[in-house]
Amino acid sequence: MVEQRVRRIGVFGGTFDPPHLGHLVAASEAAFECRLEEVVFVPAGDPWQKAHIKVTDAAARLEMTRLAIGSDPLFRISTCDIDREGATYAVDTVADVRGEYEGEVELFFIIGADSLENLHTWHRVGELVNAVKFIALNRPGHSRSEVDTSFGIEVEFIDMPAVDLSSTECRQRVADGQPLRYLVPDAVAAFIADRGLYRG
Ligand SMILES: Nc1ncnc2c1ncn2[C@@H]1O[C@H](COP(=O)(O)OP(=O)(O)OP(=O)(O)O)[C@@H](O)[C@H]1O
Ligand SMILES: O=C(O)c1ccc[n+]([C@@H]2O[C@H](COP(=O)([O-])O)[C@@H](O)[C@H]2O)c1
């Protein structure tokens, strides 16, 4: 009997408002270092921890994420978090993405060091850490030592070439009339310009 290989899949959730080169490098490095056969980008429907800031509508963030990954065969999108009603919880993301595959898959949640520091505040985090392993990426200003791994989380740290860039900075640059050239894929910059996003 031929033994079935367990597929190794990365789950990369984010608000992606907008997606930028930090996200793409993080996904690519995680896939390479952890031998993932696919990375699923999952734009958040309702990122509840960002309720205090204005978040661009989900359809536009989804379209920008589609444009950002382009035709890269390693990347795909899941709309599960946008399709689900209510606050977006990673524990639901992981269950829904698992349901998109037939057979056994091993899921790895890709996360920046800044988000990892807040993991203890996430909804039903005990269930989440039992359901997935984490791949954590360095982010300027955040160090591994600040991460609490005491609650049973399995995490592999990857040292990617540091990208000192955030979606906040991208939005601010547009508001200030500065270019996004080479900070986001060209197609994303064109979409932002066409739609007049982030102009303040
Ligand atoms: N430059 C980066 N390097 C490494 N990880 C990143 C980087 N930017 C974002 N991430 C990670 O990608 C995931 C999704 O991030 P998100 O979409 O919130 O982008 P962001 O740049 O952090 O946005 P914002 O500035 O609006 O908070 C998070 O796990 C975050 O830590
Ligand atoms: O599950 C939670 O409670 C939870 C709280 C905050 C963030 N997340 C997830 O973390 C990912 C990155 O979120 P963000 O807000 O940094 O873009 C995205 O998939 C979110 O749904 C999840």
From TrEMBL:
The EC number of this protein is 2.7.7.18
Q: Which domain of life is it from?
A: Bacteria
List the CDD domains. Answer: NMNAT
Write out the GO biological process terms: NAD+ biosynthetic process
Q: What class of enzyme is it?
A: transferase
- Gene3D superfamilies in the record: HUPs
Per the UniProt record, one Pfam family is CTP_transf_like
Q: Which SUPFAM superfamilies match?
A: Nucleotidylyl transferase
Q: Is Transferase one of the keywords UniProt gives this record?
A: yes
Query: Pathway, per Swiss-Prot/TrEMBL?
Result: Cofactor biosynthesis; NAD(+) biosynthesis; deamido-NAD(+) from nicotinate D-ribonucleotide: step 1/1
Q: Which stretches make up the Cytidyltransferase-like domain?
A: 11-173
**Which InterPro entries would you find in this protein's record?**
Cyt_trans-like (IPR004821), NadD/NMNAT (IPR005248), Rossmann-like_a/b/a_fold (IPR014729)
Assigned protein family: Belongs to the NadD family.
Name this protein carries in UniProt: Probable nicotinate-nucleotide adenylyltransferase
